[in-house]
Structures are given as C-alpha cells and as structure tokens.
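Tutorial, part two.
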Amino acid sequence: MLKKQKYSVTQQRILSVIVMCIFCLAVFPVHADNPSEKKFKAYPNPIDRGAVMTIEIPGDYDEITVYLYNTVGKVVQTYKTTNKTIELNVPDVSGIYLLRFVEKQKVIAVEKIIVKE
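Running the prediction step on this input gives:
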C-alpha cells in the first residue's frame, strides 16, 4: 500500500509554481508580433486578496477578451473590453493566477499575477 506523503506549505507552493509553469507552456502559447511593443501592464503585482488591479492595454485593438485562470486552469473571471484600462477585482483566494489576453481568437499576451495572503 502506498503511504500518503504530507508536504509543507513551502513545498506545496513550489509544486504549485512548477505545475503552473508546465501548464502555461503547454496551454498558453504567445503569438505577439512584437512583444516589446505590446507590453501589457498589470499592477500592483503582487496584490492583496480582494483588492482591485489595474490593467493597461497597449496598442490598437478592436476588442480584447481577458481571461483570469487559477492554478488548475479554471477560468475564474472573463472580461471583454474595448477600453485601454481595466479594473480587475482580484479573487479572495491567494495564489498564482494567469491573465490571458485574446483578440479575434488569437492569444496576444499572457501575464502572471500573484495574490498575496
């Protein structure tokens, strides 16, 4: 019989980051034409639970869809906007999240955000 192993909080966080990195590489390819010109800004980052994050969208886009993913790949929030700035209500659960920016079914950027305890 297999013995169930307990992990410390630090070990759990390290494993969570590793899983998120593997998930990002597999699921979220970035196809930006020139990444230096299309720098999305999400601040403050890291941010406190339940706070409001500001996201600045560069360039000329018709409509951007922003998806917020948790560490298991579940969409937590979705925003559609034509504005250059979004006010994002951050989840009440601390951890690492991904912002995925999509225009016309094409991923244009992916940003990592950290929600503090």
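The helical segments are 9-27. In part three we will examine how such features are distributed along the chain.
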